[in-house]
């Protein structure tokens, strides 16, 4: 085996002396309370409200979501709104030493703000703007997503050690707070250790080691390498945090024991169970499945308890919580229950938050969802079958990732009743993944959705329509969340769609590429036509399955979703024709009464969309033509004035040549 190409440590400059007096290494670590339980930086998920909740349940240190330094320092129209969306200073709550939320006193410290960057000057400018609101600034060297590759940041800087050194060293010398770094390992342990030592020499005062390589993402995600993390810990003189494989409460204890690190970071594990780090909650998780047995500490693990507490925090903060973050958290917290009560997914999906409102008005629709979920879960607790692992448990559960004592299953049970918080395991074809930003990337979720769709198709072919519905619903839930405001309608020009992201705190379109992750939300993330098309097919399959079972109301709902989500003149025109046929059937008394409201709502909704999209397509066609005309029509003595657009009787437009 050839020796990896490793730059010599002496080829890098000396660390240098900071311009500002500040603590470093273990002095800094002790000054923030010697944290052992750390919540990772997670795009659109480690926002202020979630940080508060995580601290209430044992987290010692929390990071902000990743901020793109280049976008953060841009000075153009709307740039102040961009910065406030990333890190809100207006309400003085982010990074505050004390927060009074109702009757509770909370804090947003200690706090580390994370940036991604490839330009030292931009990184420094961005970091200096928040250094008085945090305890340290972190450089992201771990993001493996395609957006990081296109932007040349995160894990895609791993090949440019001298640039990395400059980025870290600039912050070390110029900031008034320490600089920390989060990075991934190489395939070669020798190169990983040399890389870590270079980062330390550059001035990092604390590092987090994600025990996966840059290529270990999506379908290629594997178990994080705790051995490599332990080797880094032994090689450095500064505090080291371990990241990877933290799904059960026992995992972070085992990680500390195995790696000898100073702390353990959790991303996705925290999202599904924010009580993961709480030391006072029951450790014998297997006992959760014992009917009639409610031990002290069980309450904190109840889904509805944590969901309501999170909503309380959102309602009491002055700083608005982005609707995409709120919805993402609610889906993850309640995931086990929604696997049983699948119909409530649409209820949660349609819930909106009101960012410009205050108090309970912000979360009113989400609270109504929790009330109904609570009622159902209380009924479930009385059923003996709720305490028995389902036959298809393998779809949701698998063996622990890393168990020091494989004989002790009480702390990592294969089954936990669905009203309790618990880790989420994907089917075997898609191994569990903890990404650098805590969420699956869009590609992985889309691939997983296709897998479930294929399974649903198989069940449909076998005439197992109820099972097919279950798979199709799971597939829809697995796809990157679509915007609450219906992006398709927004693009078509609909102005009557409730837009919860229209406030000053919303992340604007120019940030879309920078912060792409699992949550795909309006103006916050990219939604591709591929995902839209897959979602349309799933709703169409769902409608076909309901039709086979003579579920006419559900058939209409699913068909409505399939028709309207794809957008475009042809699809909307076809949808309108279908609705008119249904209207004719209704006049003949052949449409279920319960479905009439949905039918006539669609009949009111589609014509304006059709008008808007036809106008949009007309403008796009003329715009494209004019662009081409500037380049070659002039060669023939023609201009775009020689072409006129004429509306057709059946809809659509044609181009006519005139002299």
Structural features, described:
- This protein has 659 residues and is of the alpha/beta class.
- Helices cover 43% and strands 8% of the residues.
- It is built from 23 helices and 13 strands.
- An 8-stranded parallel β-barrel has the order 1-2-6-7-8-9-10-11, surrounded by 6 helices. Strands 4-5 form a two-stranded antiparallel ribbon.
- Its cofactor is FMN.
- This is tRNA-dihydrouridine(16/17) synthase [NAD(P)(+)].
- InterPro entries: Aldolase_TIM, DUS-like_FMN-bd, TPR-like_helical_dom_sf, tRNA_hU_synthase_CS.
According to DSSP, the number of beta strands is 13
Structural class: alpha/beta
User: What does the overall shape look like?
Assistant: globular
CATH architecture of one domain: Alpha-Beta Barrel
- Treating each run of at least 4 consecutive H or I residues as one helix, how many helices? 23
Q: CATH fold name of one domain, please? A: TIM Barrel
The gist of it:
This protein is 43% helix and 8% strand. The chain has helices at residues 25-31, 48-56, 69-73, 79-86, 120-128, 146-151, 161-174, 189-202, 226-235, 249-259, 268-272, 303-316, 323-333, 335-340, 344-350, 364-380, 442-461, 465-478, 487-492, 529-548, 552-566, 569-587, 596-632, and strands spanning 37-39, 61-63, 67-68, 99-101, 104-106, 111-116, 136-141, 179-184, 207-210, 240-243, 263-266, 643-647, 653-657.
């Amino acid at each position: 085996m050839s020796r990896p190409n490793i730059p010599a440590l002496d080829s890098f400059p000396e660390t240098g002396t900071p311009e500002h007096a500040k603590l470093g290494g273990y002095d800094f670590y002790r000054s923030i309370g010697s944290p052992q339980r750390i919540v990772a930086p997670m795009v659109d998920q480690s926002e202020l409200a979630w940080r508060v909740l995580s601290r209430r349940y044992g987290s010692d240190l929390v990071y902000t979501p990743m901020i793109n330094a280049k976008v953060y320092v841009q000075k153009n129209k709307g740039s102040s709104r961009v910065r406030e969306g990333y890190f809100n200073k207006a309400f003085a709550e982010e990074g505050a030493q004390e927060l009074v939320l109702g009757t509770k006193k909370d804090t947003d410290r200690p706090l580390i703000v994370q940036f991604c960057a490839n330009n030292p000057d931009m990184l420094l400018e961005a970091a200096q703007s928040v250094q008085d609101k945090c305890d340290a600034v972190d450089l992201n060297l771990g993001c493996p997503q395609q957006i990081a590759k296109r932007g040349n940041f995160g894990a895609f800087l791993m090949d440019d050690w001298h640039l990395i050194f400059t980025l870290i060293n600039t912050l070390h010398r110029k900031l008034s707070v320490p600089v920390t770094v989060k990075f991934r390992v190489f395939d070669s342990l020798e190169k990983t250790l040399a890389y870590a030592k270079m980062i330390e020499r550059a001035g990092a005062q604390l590092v987090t080691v994600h025990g996966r390589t840059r290529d270990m993402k999506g379908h290629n995600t594997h178990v994080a390498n705790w051995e490599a993390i332990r080797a880094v810990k032994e090689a450095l003189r500064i505090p080291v945090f371990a990241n990877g494989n933290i799904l059960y409460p026992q995992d972070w204890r085992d990680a500390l024991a195995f790696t000898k690190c100073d702390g353990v970071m959790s991303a996705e594990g925290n999202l599904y169970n924010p009580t993961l780090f709480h030391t006072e909650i029951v450790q014998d998780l297997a006992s959760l499945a014992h009917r009639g047995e409610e031990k002290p500490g069980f309450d904190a693990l109840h889904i509805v308890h944590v969901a309501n507490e999170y909503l309380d925090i959102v309602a009491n903060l002055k700083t608005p919580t982005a609707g995409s973050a709120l919805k993402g958290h609610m889906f993850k917290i309640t995931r086990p229950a929604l696997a049983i009560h699948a119909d409530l997914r649409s209820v949660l999906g349609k819930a909106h938050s009101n960012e410009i409102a205050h108090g309970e008005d912000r979360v009113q629709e989400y609270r109504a969802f929790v009330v109904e979920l609570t009622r159902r879960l209380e009924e479930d607790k009385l059923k003996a079958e709720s305490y028995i692992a389902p036959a298809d448990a393998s779809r949701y559960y698998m063996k622990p990732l890393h168990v020091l004592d494989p004989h002790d299953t009480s702390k990592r049970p294969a089954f936990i009743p669905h009203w309790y918080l618990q880790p989420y395991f994907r089917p075997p074809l898609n191994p569990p993944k903890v990404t650098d930003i805590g969420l699956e990337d869009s590609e992985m979720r889309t691939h997983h959705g296709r897998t479930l769709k294929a399974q649903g198709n198989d069940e449909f072919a076998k005439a197992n329509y109820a099972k097919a519905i279950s798979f199709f619903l799971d597939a829809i839930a697995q796809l990157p969340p679509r915007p609450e405001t219906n992006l398709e309608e927004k693009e078509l020009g609909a102005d009557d769609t409730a837009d919860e992201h229209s406030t000053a705190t919303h992340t604007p379109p120019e940030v879309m590429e920078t912060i792409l992750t699992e949550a795909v939300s309006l103006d916050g993330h990219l939604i591709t036509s591929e995902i839209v098309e897959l979602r349309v097919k799933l709703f169409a399959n769902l409608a076909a399955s309901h039709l086979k079972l003579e579920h006419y109301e559900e058939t209409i709902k699913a068909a409505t979703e399939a028709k309207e989500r794809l957008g475009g003149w042809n699809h909307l025109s076809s949808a309108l024709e279908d609705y008119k046929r249904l209207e004719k059937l209704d006049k003949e008394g052949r449409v279920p009464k319960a479905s009439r409201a949905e039918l006539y709502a669609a009949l009111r909704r589609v014509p304006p969309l059709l008008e808007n999209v036809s106008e949009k397509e007309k403008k796009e066609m003329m715009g494209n033509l004019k662009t081409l005309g500037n380049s070659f029509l002039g060669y023939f003595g023609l201009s775009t004035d020689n072409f006129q657009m004429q509306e057709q009787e059946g809809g659509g437009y044609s181009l006519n040549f005139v002299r």
